[in-house]
Amino acid sequence: MDYSRYKDLKIRHVEPFILEIAMGEEGKLSTATARLHKELADVWLDVDRDPDTRVVILRGIGKGFSAGGDLAMVEQITQDFAARARVWREARDLVYNVINCDKPIVSALHGPAVGAGLVAGLLADISIAARDAKIVDGHTRLGVAAGDHAAIVWPLLCGMAKAKYYLMLCEPVSGEEAERIGLVSLAVDAGQLLPKAYEVADRLAQGSQSAIRWTKYALNNWLRQAGPAFDTSLALEFMGFGGADVREGIASLRERRAPKF
User: Which tens digits make up the pLDDT trace of 134-180?
Assistant: First the structure.
């Protein structure tokens, strides 16, 4: 499989049958530009067809796992219907492509984990977080409904009460707390994050591929059943991009102040 068309994602085989997908740059936070957003939606289709890949590790490079959407892209969505429709479709495809990817995905979350990267990180089959990672679903802070992955997977992982608390209040969740409430599979010390992710990926790569893949497919039917809830949340999120609250949300982020809705 030729991954050379991906420019913002850094993709390489690190061990036999283990593919690493990395976001970001050294010393920086990974921001979801328009290109990264599209690549993160599309790459799972290629992974699914790749005969040389049994397991994927998704990780961030630099200061965190992912830092959320580029404000220029977000602003364009509020002003341009065609852009809004395009990003809506990519957001939908990202969720369903991760769910339907045949190969198991292991995510390694450190530092801030927000936005499109977080979508794939929490939908991964095994999610591993550094204890001091900071997981935030930033939608309500921006002034739009918590769409993306939130409605489809948070209630299933950590229960409805916790999901409403963290999503409606836009409350950060540490990696340690995320493990306690069931939002991630494991939490480890930061220095052990990548070694643990590789250990898990290696075990998956050496296991029965049909058994592992069919187990993933069967379990992900829980997520497929939640498809209507996800579709509704995503539609409401993108309807919000046409409203006044998101403009105040963008302005407050640019000005580094609390929003006044």
Answer: 999 999 999 999 988 999 999 999 999 999 999 999 999 999 999 99
**Residue 182, number of CB atoms within 10 A of its CB:** 12
Determine contact, residues 204/106, Cβ cutoff 8 Å.
yes
185 φ/ψ sector (left φ>0, alpha ψ -120 to 50, else beta): alpha
pTM: 0.95
Are 46 and 53 within 8 A, CB to CB?
A: no
Which residues make Cβ contacts (< 8 Å) with residue 22, sequence separation at least 6? 9, 10, 11, 58, 59, 60, 61
pLDDT value at position 104? 98
For 12, half-sphere exposure in the C-beta direction (CA atoms, 13 angstrom radius) is 6
For residue 192, give every residue at least 6 positions away whose Cβ sits within 8 Å of its Cβ, in sequence order, or none. none
Q: Count CB atoms within 10 A of the CB of residue 14.
A: 12
Tell me if 202 sits within 8 A of 18, measured CB to CB.
yes
End-to-end CA gap in the chain: 48
Alpha carbons 199 and 16: distance in angstroms, whole number: 13
Contacts of 145 (CB under 8 A, 6+ apart): 139, 233, 236, 237, 239, 240
Q: 29 pLDDT exceeds 80? A: no
User: Encoding tokens for residue 169?
Assistant: 């209040």
**Contact (Cβ atoms closer than 8 angstroms) between residue 30 and residue 24:** yes
Instruction: Name the strand (E) or helix (H) holding 85.
Output: helix 81-100
Sheet with 173-174: strands ordered across:
66-67, 112-114, 134-135, 173-174
